[in-house]
Design brief:
This protein is α+β, with helices and mostly antiparallel strands. Helix content is 58%, strand content 8%. The protein contains 17 helices and eight strands. Strands 4-3-2-1-5-6-7-8 form an eight-stranded antiparallel sheet. Helix 7 (187-201) runs antiparallel to helix 13 and helix 8 crosses helix 12.
């Protein structure tokens, strides 16, 4: 494909400057996003285990409910029945959680002892994994959620511009340079090949991330515009009439007895074959009539997130009353909206897809790092051509920020996960937030203080040590014999990842791609 050289030059300039503006924000977003692909296992790993009797069978749930409500009448207000207990939800009955919560919340877990007496234990989950998720959503900045969401939307729009312009720059030499990674030439060529290869081969993934991020950032504004343009206002007397009808209907059913959980599960299975229910969430906080929401998943369809989809159910008849968010039972418009969540969160295809998203996310983070390094090397080459022996202030600042922000994010995330098992539940979000930004700013300071190659070595080794300390902190809280399989997997991955970071630090070409040849031409360029 032929594109005029002046047009290619223009798009190269656009790509370079847009990439410099948003590259470091996107590094944090992609690195933290890779970690949050396993937010639930990390939360379980960092939370102290609770001692409870075995979960009760679904047939004995009415007995557990009756005894728990007798001992704790406040549990009637809001409780959840867990059909398949896990390490994060170790009991069949959970109560005391707020209805609308952002992130993990403390809850009460109830079970029956061997003698039939109710046992209730309160569990305070770790906030560390949720903080990393917030870091991902707000591209590494600490600000109010709404402001962070809008800023993330602007970065996502610039990200889309960088994708388009970068693709147009690569197209003229696509066939010639498709598989070319010239590791034996100069530093600029190496960073260019690494950046181009990572961007080109993961382009569909990056398009999905850019598009879905824009939708998430501006979804309130999109919904408002949709309602104003497409939804006709209802006539007032119809709304009033429906309200009176609903009121009398509620009043007639206030004294009905809800179906037991086993009947609810059987009734829903008849209406939605293939849907696998996981929890039954009851609430009567808005009046005397009980409300029920059932969550679960259908392997044939994607879900809005790691928690699956959900539907509203009439607890007195078991009839589905709201299926807007139920996999396989949505309208066409709702299915399209759900597809954005499915593609962004990778909630399809099982663990293989999730690990694929982890690798693509880490590859994307390195792509942004390589792009910034390419800019630094190109700027140095031009400066050396004018006779300068030292970097200009702008080059030095961007180089230090590239190293400090990138490795500061790596070290900060490892530090948060390292201390998470040792922290008390109360006020943990504030502590991990303060710790992350303290480590992050420390790494930036080191990048400005030390020479480039020394800073890379120090920060990589620092990140490796913090990552290796994660299993040690977990063993302090939870004995090895009591660890779940998911916790052991986290520890094993931390050991391997720490070894990779340390290997990258001690190599002669610290901070360069692992495959770099030793025959690189030496010169004033430093990368």
């Amino acid at each position: 494909m032929k594109i005029r050289s002046d047009i290619v030059r223009m798009y190269r300039e656009i790509h370079s400057w847009v990439g410099i503006v948003c590259g470091l924000f996107l590094f944090v977003a992609f690195y933290a996003g890779s970690v949050t692909m396993f937010e639930r296992p990390l939360q379980d790993w960092a939370s102290a285990p609770v001692a409870l009797p075995p979960p009760v069978a679904l047939g004995k749930m009415p007995e557990l409910l009756e005894k728990t409500f007798s001992a704790h009448p406040e549990a009637r207000r809001n409780y959840t029945i867990v059909l398949h207990p896990t390490a994060s939800q170790p009991a069949s009955l959970v109560w005391g959680m707020p209805e609308r919560m952002h992130g993990p919340s403390s809850a009460n877990f109830s079970a029956l002892a061997a003698d039939g007496s109710p046992v209730t234990v309160r569990k305070d989950p770790s906030q560390a994994a949720y903080f990393i998720n917030v870091l991902h959503q707000q591209v590494g900045l600490s600000m109010p959620h709404k402001a962070g969401r809008l800023f993330m939307g602007v970065i996502a729009l610039l990200y889309a511009v960088a994708l388009i312009s970068g693709t147009l720059v690569v197209i003229p030499g696509l066939i010639k340079n498709l598989f070319a990674i010239r590791l034996g030439q100069n530093v600029k060529r190496m960073w260019l090949d690494m950046h181009s290869m990572l961007g080109l081969f993961s382009l569909p993934f990056h398009i999905i991330m850019a598009l879905t991020s824009v939708v998430f950032a501006f979804h309130d504004e999109i919904y408002m515009a949709e309602q104003a343009l497409l939804i006709q206002p209802q006539v007032q007397h119809v709304a009033l009439g429906s309200g009176r009808g609903q009121h009398s209907h509620n009043g007639s059913e206030d004294f009905r007895i809800p179906l037991d959980p086993a009947q609810i599960v059987r009734t829903v299975a008849l209406q939605a074959p293939g849907f696998i229910p996981e929890t039954l969430a009851y609430s009567n906080s808005h009046g005397s009539r009980l409300a029920l929401r059932i969550t679960g998943r259908d392997p044939r369809y994607g879900a809005r997130g790691a928690g699956g989809g959900f539907a509203g159910v009439d607890p007195y008849s078991g009839k589905l009353v709201s299926t807007e968010y139920m996999p396989g039972h949505q309208t066409w418009a709702q299915s399209v909206l759900t597809s954005f969540f499915v593609l962004h969160f990778g909630s399809f295809g099982g663990q293989g897809v999730r690990w694929g998203y982890v690798l693509l996310g880490l590859g994307g983070a390195f792509m942004f790092y390589a792009g910034n390094q390419l800019w630094v090397v190109s700027r140095r080459r031009r400066e050396r051509g004018t006779g300068r022996l030292d970097d200009t202030r702008s080059t030095r600042i961007l180089c230090a920020l590239t190293i400090g922000c990138s490795l500061g994010c790596v070290a900060g995330v490892s530090a948060v996960l390292c201390v998470a098992p040792l922290l008390p539940a109360s006020g943990q979000m504030t502590i991990v937030q303060g710790l992350y930004f303290a480590i992050f700013l420390l790494c930036i300071g080191i990048a400005f203080w030390l020479k480039e190659r020394e800073a890379i070595r120090v920060l990589l080794a620092f990140s490796a040590i913090l990552t290796w300390m994660m299993p040690l902190s977990a063993f302090v809280v939870t004995p090895f014999s009591s660890m779940q399989a998911s916790a052991l997997a986290v520890d094993g991955f931390a050991i391997l990842y720490g070894a990779f970071l340390m290997l990258w630090a001690v190599r002669p070409e610290a901070g360069q791609p692992v495959l770099r040849r030793k025959s690189f031409s030496s010169g004033p360029e430093r990368a």
